[in-house]
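Entry 14. Structure prediction run on the chain below.
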Amino acid sequence: MNLLVTLNEAYVPTLKVMLRSLFDNCKKQLTIYIMYTDIGENEIKDLAAFVKYFGHTLYPLPVNSDTFSNAPVNFYYSKEMYYRLFAYTVLPSTVDKVLYLDPDILVLNPIEKLYNIDLGDYLFAAAAHDKMMIGYINKIRLKTDGDRYYNSGVLLMNIKRLREDMDISEISGYVEEHASELILPDQDVLNGLYWDKIMPLDECLYNYDARRYSAYLISTKGKVNMEYIIYNTVIMHFCGKQKPWHNGYPYRFGILYKHYKKLAERDEKALLQ
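Output returned:
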């Protein structure tokens, strides 16, 4: 099973927490591809040892620092967010499918069913955080006919089809042309160019927004409650600027994140012994 993550050095501790939760919920052998620019050699070795401790393999994919150097970024979104969009150009030729996950995620239940989805001719599978007004605004803003605005934090990627159909110059051209309009840059590119080539996923299962417990509870008439989440939700995503590893995180699942953070820290200590 192939996993992809793109990140900078600041997110390495967060990645370890995500991986720790994944290792608890995946029985398959994992090859974890990481695309990065500014992570030091010692950090990579440390991360590789952490992954190996659980019986999996880390596959570093360093990216030239000039790549997307002129693309719009801000305090919250670094240029590494764009890397997932051209991952198909650097992944080994033997890779036909990969699951991309943001580091600010917890995997709560077995991941295999998601990975084994048949993508057919779709380039991606992703979930939209369906809020009617937001979807409408993004439809107008990005000038698409799509009714959904897909979140790019969880992407099942059809690498075989991406190699055949995707053009890196189209991506860089879109970024350059729309630079002043991009709010969530890589996500805007994904939706602006490929909205009709994305298989929709159930967000309550595969990209649960940890901020929206009450909204999900109301919109599903009580179905997606705490018990449902614990037994069914596969991926919980800590979206937004407020993160559960920061002090004062205001949402209810912060304590769950701290549980996995503690497990990751415990395992790191075991590695040093």
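The chain has eleven helices and ten strands.
Filed with the rest of this week's runs.
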